[in-house]
Amino acid sequence: MDLGLSGRRALVCAASRGLGKACALALAAEGCEVLIIARRPDILAHAADDIRQQTGAKVETVAADVTTPEGRARILAAMPDPHILVTNAGGPPPGDFHDWDRDTWIRALDANMLAPIELIKATIDSMMVRRWGRIVNITSGAVKAPIDVLGLSNGARSGLTGFVAGLARASIRHGVTINNLLPGPFDTDRLAQVLAAQAAKDGIAVEEAARRRAGANPSGRFGDPAEFGAFCAFLCSDQAGYMTGQNILLDGGAYPGVF
Which PANTHER family would you find in this protein's record (predicted)? Predict the structure, then answer.
């Protein structure tokens, strides 16, 4: 299937590794010109080289903190009018809500709610003028099935979800879709962090926590980031132009509900 993405410009946040990199790689493989963002220039440069070698695509980088106005200004100077925006940020640390003060909550909101909204605000108008645009927010399966040690993420990402629900119904008339991808347990550094926290809470080894978590999933395994990237590319395709405002779980069947 030709996804109709050749020649499109894609801005992908937190793309030096994990799910963000998987999305950037999949979009590059479909012919997009990709700008990848992360804070650490060394890891970012390595990721860009890897994507170029695998796809032959044009890949640019900006090492910046997307949660700051200065960082977003540098990012948007490099690609002010993308066809595709993939927002993403590392999740806030797990823990006990008794230990989180106001500053901790503000950091979580800045990273996982307010920064994506600011990037959407800065790019959606040009997409609507062009009458074609795709915005994909990488959130978390915890939006639908909260995880007790991820309260900061549960709250901040749910705020973004509520905001998107209204905007997505207004922008699609202008050819711009906005959807959220909700990953379950994928084999990433973030999962390793969550498993370490869970192991500490339960007083078990990290390996045992991983075995239990994978075994409890209906698939019996963790997701491959490449699977996630492929689905992101489809959401950005011409064929996905009638889908907007959706929260799409990629979790191996872990969520037990019907709706």
Answer: 3-OXOACYL-(ACYL-CARRIER-PROTEIN) REDUCTASE, NADPH-DEPENDENT REDUCTASE BACG
At residue 142, the pLDDT reads 86
Residues 30, 221: Cα–Cα separation, whole Å: 27
Mean pLDDT across 239-243: 98
Sign of CA dihedral 49, 54, 59, 63: negative
The string of pLDDT tens digits covering residues 6-34 is: 999 999 999 999 999 999 999 999 999 99
34 with 13, same domain: the answer is yes
- Stretch 176-180: mean pLDDT: 98
Are residues 158 and 206 both part of a single domain?
A: no
Same structural domain, 163 and 216? no
Rg (CA), the chain: 18
Residue 201: domain span: 186-222
Query: How does the average pLDDT of the chain come out, rounded?
Result: 94
Q: Is this structure's pTM higher than 0.85? A: yes
Q: Same structural domain for residues 180 and 201?
A: no
CATH number of the domain that residue 72 is part of = 3.40.50.720
Tokens of 41: 């220039």
